[in-house]
């Protein structure tokens, strides 16, 4: 299989796992724990490895995965970081802390609306500037606002780049595991 087909197959597999994880997680209870187990296994992590990453006992991970125990927000946050899955945290909040979840949703909607309106406002002011309808102080303020916005975009881009780098490492590890498995499997024949 060539690289592009392997990549497409991996994307399809990831989408299937995501779909299964989020369907289960949204059902709550033991299903939420099962969703965490599926996500952990999809990353090739053993329960004790996740426990070590999260700084809890492996028994605690078992209680979550098999018995539907909902951890504290702090522990759940660490688990989601270790599993590279922020969406699981949102589902967790929706189940355990609905008021907090609602505030998070409102914040995200407001943040997106704020970004859109900030861009629109800067565009209007730039148009005014081109027509000579903006004072010198306003020009300085707009220049700073554009620079600050650029810094926000840069920080977001850096976070995205780190996520992409993590994903590339995971893909490389997966490919290495798959190749090693296939080589060992051929030796058995």
Topology diagram in text:
Layout: H1 3-27, H2 30-42, H3 47-54, H4 58-67, H5 73-83, H6 86-96, H7 98-130, H8 136-188
Report on the structure:
With 189 residues, this protein is an all-alpha fold. The chain folds into 2 domains: 3-96, lambda repressor-like DNA-binding domains (434 Repressor (Amino-terminal Domain)); 100-188. The chain has helices at 3-27, 30-42, 47-54, 58-67, 73-83, 86-96, 98-130, 136-188. It is extended and about 80 Å long.
What share of residues are in beta strands? Answer: under 5%
Biggest sheet, open or closed, and with what strands and sense?
none
Structural class assignment: mainly alpha
Mean pLDDT: 82
Radius of gyration: 23 Å
Treating each run of at least 4 consecutive H or I residues as one helix, how many helices?
Answer: 8
Give the overall silhouette.
Answer: extended
What percent of the residues sit in helical stretches (DSSP H or I)? over 70%
Q: What is the third-level CATH name, the topology of the largest domain?
A: 434 Repressor (Amino-terminal Domain)
Distance between the termini: 21 Å
The name of the CATH superfamily of the largest domain reads lambda repressor-like DNA-binding domains
Order of helices and strands: HHHHHHHH
CATH hierarchy: architecture of the largest domain: Orthogonal Bundle
Q: What's the CATH C level of the largest domain? A: Mainly Alpha
Domain module tally: 2
Number of strands: 0
Low-pLDDT segments, ≥5 res: none
């Amino acid at each position: 299989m060539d690289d592009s087909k392997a990549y497409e197959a991996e994307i399809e597999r990831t989408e299937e796992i995501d779909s299964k994880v989020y369907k289960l997680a949204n059902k709550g209870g033991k299903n939420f724990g099962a969703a965490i187990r599926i996500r952990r296994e999809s990353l090739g992590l053993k329960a004790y490895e996740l426990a070590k990453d999260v700084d809890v006992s492996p028994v605690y991970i078992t209680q979550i995965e098999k018995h539907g125990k909902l951890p504290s927000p702090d522990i759940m946050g660490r688990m989601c970081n270790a599993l590279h899955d922020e969406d699981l945290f949102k589902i967790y909040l929706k189940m355990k802390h609905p008021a907090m979840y609602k505030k998070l949703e409102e914040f995200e909607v407001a943040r997106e609306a704020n970004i859109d309106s900030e861009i629109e406002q800067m565009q209007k002011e730039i148009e005014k500037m081109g027509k000579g309808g903006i004072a010198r102080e306003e020009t300085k303020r707009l220049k700073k606002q554009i620079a600050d916005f650029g810094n926000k975009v840069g920080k977001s881009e850096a976070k995205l780049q780190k996520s992409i780098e993590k994903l590339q490492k995971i893909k490389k590890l997966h490919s290495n595991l798959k190749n090693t498995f296939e080589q060992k499997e051929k030796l058995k024949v």
